[in-house]
Design goal:
The protein has one helix spanning 2-35, and strands at residues 40-41, 47-48, 69-79, 85-100, 103-117, 125-142, 152-156, 159-161. By secondary structure, it is α+β, with helices and mostly antiparallel strands. Strands 3, 4, 5, 6, 7 and 8 form a six-stranded antiparallel β-sheet that branches. Strands 1-2 form a two-stranded antiparallel sheet. The protein starts with a helix and ends in a 9-residue tail after the last strand.
C-alpha cells in the first residue's frame, strides 16, 4: 500500500511539472522557429544563409549584414542532483552590431540564477544576480564566394566574472 501512495505522489508531481512546462516550451520552440526564417536573396539567385547560428555546438563564419543590430539571449542550465532540488543557469544578454561587412561586435552582461534546496554538501540558495560581463569581436578574414567555398573568421572573446560566494572566515 505504501508503494502505491509513493508512486501516485511521484506521478502527480511529474504531471504537474510537465503540465506547467509544456506551454512555455511550445512558445519558446515557436519563437525559435520563427526567428530562423530570415534569409536574404543574393544577387546571383541563391539564398544567403546566416551561418553563425547554423550548428548548436560551433559557430559559423558569418558576421551578419552591414548595419545589422540584434539582441538575443543565450542560456546554459544545470538541472537536478541525486537529492533535493537543484537548478542553476547562466544567461548572456547579448547585444550585437555589425558596423561593416567584415567586423561584428557583441557585448552584454552575464546573469546567473540558483535555486538549491536540501542538496547534500551544498548550502540552500535562491538568488538571481549579475555574474559578469562579456564582449566578442569577430573579423571576417576570407569571405565565401562562388569562386571560393571557404570562409575564415577570427574572433576574440574577453569576459569577466563576479564571485557570488561569501568570503571564507579565518
Amino acid at each position: 500500500m505504501r508503494l502505491g501512495v509513493v508512486a501516485k505522489s511521484t506521478l502527480k508531481r511529474a504531471a504537474s511539472f510537465w503540465g506547467t512546462q509544456i506551454p512555455g516550451l511550445a512558445i519558446a520552440g515557436a519563437l525559435i522557429a520563427l526567428s530562423n526564417t530570415n534569409s536574404t536573396h543574393a544577387q546571383d539567385g541563391f539564398y544567403e544563409v546566416e551561418t553563425k547560428y547554423i550548428f548548436g555546438f560551433t559557430e559559423g563564419s558569418g558576421v551578419g549584414l552591414e548595419g545589422e543590430k540584434e539582441f538575443s539571449l543565450e542560456s546554459i542550465a544545470r538541472i537536478g542532483k541525486a537529492d533535493g532540488r537543484y537548478w542553476a543557469s547562466e544567461t548572456k544578454l547579448e547585444y550585437e552590431f555589425t558596423p561593416n561587412q567584415y567586423v561584428q561586435f557583441e557585448l552584454g552582461p552575464l546573469v546567473s540564477t540558483h535555486i538549491i534546496k536540501h542538496v547534500t554538501d551544498l548550502e540552500n540558495r535562491n538568488n538571481l544576480a549579475m555574474s559578469g560581463f562579456f564582449g566578442e569581436v569577430r573579423y571576417l578574414v576570407l569571405e565565401r564566394s562562388a569562386s571560393s567555398p571557404l570562409a575564415v573568421t577570427v574572433s576574440a572573446s574577453p569576459s569577466g566574472t563576479v564571485s557570488t560566494r561569501p568570503a571564507a572566515r579565518a
